[in-house]
Amino acid sequence: QFLMANKLDTAMWISRLFTVYCSALFVLPLLGLHEAASFYQRALLANALTSALRLHQRLPHFQLSRAFLAQALLEDSCHYLLYSLIFVNSYPVTMSIFPVLLFSLLHAATYTKKVLDARSSNSLPFLRNLLEKLNANQQNILKFIACNEIFLMPATVFMLFSGQGSLLQPFIYYRFLTLRYSSRRNPYCRTLFTELRIVVEHLIMKPSCPIFVRRLCLRSISFISRLAPTVA
């Protein structure tokens, strides 16, 4: 009754569980490397479906207008719909599957707890214990996802020069990264950029750091800072 009363949430729960399943079989290619590549695409397509359903839930009344598009781009679900479309037809990259896997795992765990609560307050204690441990590490997981989002930017450039990526991919991914940086719901991308900058500046200001490395890092920090969008 609980599942039928929340059909859209249930559909997203199932698609997230399927995303976790496909992502796990890509990261751990138990069925062979050839099959792993197909699971990579399935995971991203399932994530695109989940993101589209979530976006429809957040913005139910679609309008073909600039204002609607601007509002949609503020939603995290729109960001990951774009993310899935960027990588679904690209060369499989393990780094790119981790944000999809971990976000799906976190959201699926939250809804699984609701399903267990609807069934019985004491049902499946072992599973509840696992869900609680996952929830306790949520902040670390979100930081890890943000790290993946950031370091995928140079990875897309490397893929381009190695012949495994398209010319447009780094530019489209840069747009995705600016959306994540400006996210209202998830500040971890901004936080990680700040923390990485502090760590790099601390290291390059040590007397043992060569002058040319210091200058190169300072110029890189200045360049990246200019590319960062303004956050309201």
TrEMBL record:
The keyword Protein biosynthesis does not apply. The gene is Tmem33. This is TMM33 protein. It is a multi-pass membrane protein. GO terms for biological process: endoplasmic reticulum tubular network organization; membrane organization. Its main location: membrane. It comes from the Eukaryota. The chain crosses the membrane at residues 12-33, 80-106, 150-174. The lineage of its organism: Eukaryota, Metazoa, Chordata, Craniata, Vertebrata. The keyword Transmembrane applies. GO terms for cellular component: endoplasmic reticulum; membrane. It holds the Pfam family TMEM33_Pom33. Keywords: Membrane, Transmembrane, Transmembrane helix. It is found in: Membrane. Belongs to the PER33/POM33 family. It comes from Furnarius figulus. InterPro entries: PER33/POM33_regulator (IPR051645), TMEM33/Pom33 (IPR005344).
